[in-house]
Design a protein that fits this description.
By secondary structure, the chain is α/β, with parallel strands linked by helices. The chain has one domain: 3-Layer(aba) Sandwich (Rossmann fold), CATH 3.40.50.1820. Helix content is 46%, strand content 14%. Helix 6 runs antiparallel to helix 7. The N and C termini lie far apart (38 Å). GO terms for molecular function: catalytic activity. This is AB hydrolase-1 domain-containing protein. InterPro entries: AB_hydrolase_1 (IPR000073), AB_hydrolase_fold (IPR029058), Carboxylesterase_BioH (IPR050228).
């Protein structure tokens, strides 16, 4: 059964619907991007069990199909009867992809921001190699050491939020003042452990097939962009999107990680704005 996402709105202008990732992160982690998109009404969704959205009754109510049900229902009810521009980050990009594949008439343009094109052992190997390649960076080395000695299950959602903030250098480029401030904010927000656990154990191993099936049904223009230093959805994933979606637009953000909207918010926003404006005139 579809759950009703909560929403935070920013700015004014044409609607851009943003679906956060994680899964399970508080949606406010995407706010650096919303602030960099003037001239748009940005509807930042709060997916099930995060932010102001209620948790599903069952701890396994976090399947990609459930998130897709929620997003499709929201677009039907709140996009003013017009196809919407849709952006998803990471896991949220997968949800956006599935919504655009299921209901092509609801989506005008699709932006896949730091979204993995495949999962399973191949993705794990690439991520581990990317992290090792940056192990000379002090914050990355500290995060890797913490990851090695951390128990599998934090005691509660607040503890998970604090842990993710400590691990954040793995997903950021070289730390700037902006990234440090964002990281401090992340530590104050609980994260949904049930959502993250379900994705990692159930959805991620089968992601290749999920993505291949979805792209067969896409009809809208697609932008895929990611950070050069992103171990989770970086250059190999960007190349995979280009192969899966001939005719799509791909952009690599230099010196940025998985949270490229934090490392380089204006570069990300510029790429998104250019894509939406260019394809709108085609």
């Amino acid at each position: 059964m579809a759950s009703r996402p909560a929403v935070s709105r920013y700015g004014s202008g044409p609607l851009l619907v943003c679906h956060p990732g994680g899964p399970g992160l508080h949606p406010s982690y995407l706010e650096p991007l919303t602030a960099a998109l003037p001239g748009r009404t940005v509807a930042l969704l709060h997916p099930r069990g995060t932010g102001d959205a209620p948790r599903p009754a069952a701890p396994d109510g976090y399947a990609l199909r459930d998130y897709t049900d929620d997003l499709v229902t929201w677009l039907e009810q709140h996009a003013d009867g017009e196809p919407a521009d849709l952006l998803g980050h990471s896991h949220g990009g997968l949800v956006a992809l599935l919504a655009a594949a299921r209901r092509p008439g609801l989506v005008r343009h699709l932006v896949l921001l730091a979204t993995p094109a495949f999962g399973g052992e191949r993705a794990d190997r690439i991520a581990a190699a990317g992290h090792r390649a940056r192990s000379a960076e002090g914050p990355v080395a500290e995060a890797l050491a913490l990851l090695d000695r951390t128990p599998a299950e934090p005691e509660d959602d607040a503890a998970l939020g604090r842990l993710l903030a400590r691990l954040a250098p793995l997903w950021l480029g070289p730390l700037t003042g902006r990234a440090r401030a964002w990281r401090a904010g992340l530590a104050t927000r609980p994260a949904n452990a049930d959502a993250l656990r379900h994705f990692n154990t159930t959805e991620f191993p089968a992601l290749d097939g999920t993505v291949r099936e979805a792209v067969r049904h896409l009809t809208c223009p697609v932008l895929a962009l990611t950070g050069e230093l992103d171990g989770l959805a970086g250059p190999p994933h960007l190349s995979a999107w280009a192969a899966l979606l001939p005719g799509s637009t791909t952009v690599l953000i230099p010196a940025a990680g998985h949270m490229c909207h934090v490392d380089a918010p204006h570069a990300v926003a510029s790429a998104v704005t250019s894509f939406l404006g260019r394809t709108a005139m085609d």
